[in-house]
């Protein structure tokens, strides 16, 4: 197991990062935006005869002493600021075939609205939802549930990362150099195996090849960066996960290690011995306990959302 130790671990439940009302409002707004995207895909512009409003698509005839403002049948979406924000504000409330003199940066533009078209947004129906082709989502309520689960999962995943970072910051650890070296050796094992698959020798690869493989200009640079910065944090995360897993009576071991290869699509083309070179046991333990911390903490906050679903939907 780990030579590293956790001297004092902060209970993640005491970390004051998650504010349910604020998070719920963010989720609700994202759900509304997603629902709007669906109906907007099926929206159409229809001609109206009242007056220009923000969001309207207007067709304009412009005349001016300045060449760039001499335009016929110019389409402008009012309020989009794609033409000119000041100009667009000044044509609000104009009526069809009305002529106005618009002042813009010293230019006087004779402006006539020849047509006003307004976006007609359809009602959100089960039929429109089925057009999204989401497996198992057939109704508007299905889609709202799908959005809730998807958005909340993303939201609590982000919260979990912030909580883990904070727990790491205020907890006390004793990180073993032996563990750091074991992680490095595991990564070298993986890189060596993948290089051999390509008919290359890791130590003889060019700087570009090394960079593509490991994200650092050389194996020596990789060793410095990971041993000094990344591996200690990997181990801290894993130790937090280990402390949570022990409370839950959950263990990752040789048995779960080998079964993880059997259930993985990635490793199905490799033998067991090859898989172990790609993902050595100690690296598996570090990853698994780290992932358990994330999963458990994210699940804790997701449960808070589930219990207060009415705040969102």
From TrEMBL:
Domain of life: Bacteria
Gene Ontology biological process terms from the UniProt entry: protein folding; protein transport
UniProt-recorded name of the protein: Uncharacterized protein
Organism per entry: Niallia circulans
């Amino acid at each position: 197991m780990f030579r590293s130790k956790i001297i004092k671990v902060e209970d993640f439940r005491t970390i004051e990062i998650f504010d349910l009302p604020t998070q719920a409002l963010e989720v609700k707004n994202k759900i509304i935006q997603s629902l709007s995207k669906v109906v907007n895909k099926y929206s159409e512009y229809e001609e109206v005869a009242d007056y220009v409003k923000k969001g309207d698509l207007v067709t304009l005839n412009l005349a001016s002493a300045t060449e760039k403002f001499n335009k016929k049948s110019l389409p402008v979406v009012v309020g989009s600021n794609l033409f000119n924000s000041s100009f667009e504000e000044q044509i609000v409330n104009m009526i069809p075939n009305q002529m106005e003199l618009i002042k813009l940066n010293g230019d006087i533009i004779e402006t006539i609205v020849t047509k006003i078209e307004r976006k007609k947004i359809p009602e959100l129906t089960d039929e429109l939802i089925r057009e999204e082709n989401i497996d198992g989502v057939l109704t508007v309520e299905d889609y709202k549930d799908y959005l809730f689960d998807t958005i909340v999962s993303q939201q609590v995943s982000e919260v979990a990362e912030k909580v883990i970072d904070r727990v790491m910051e205020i907890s006390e650890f004793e990180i073993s150099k032996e563990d750091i070296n074991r992680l490095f050796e595991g990564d070298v094992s993986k890189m060596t195996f993948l290089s051999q698959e390509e008919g290359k020798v890791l130590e003889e690869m060019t700087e570009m090849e090394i960079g593509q493989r490991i994200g650092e200009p050389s194996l020596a640079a990789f060793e410095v960066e990971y041993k000094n910065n990344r591996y200690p944090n990997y181990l801290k995360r894993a130790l937090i996960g280990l402390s949570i897993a022990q409370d839950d009576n959950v263990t990752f071991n040789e048995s779960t290690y080998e079964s993880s290869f059997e259930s993985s699509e990635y490793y199905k083309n490799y033998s067991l011995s090859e898989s172990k070179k790609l993902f050595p046991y100690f690296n598996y333990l570090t990853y698994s306990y780290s992932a358990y911390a994330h999963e458990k903490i994210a699940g804790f906050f997701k449960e808070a959302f589930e219990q207060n679903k009415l705040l969102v939907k």
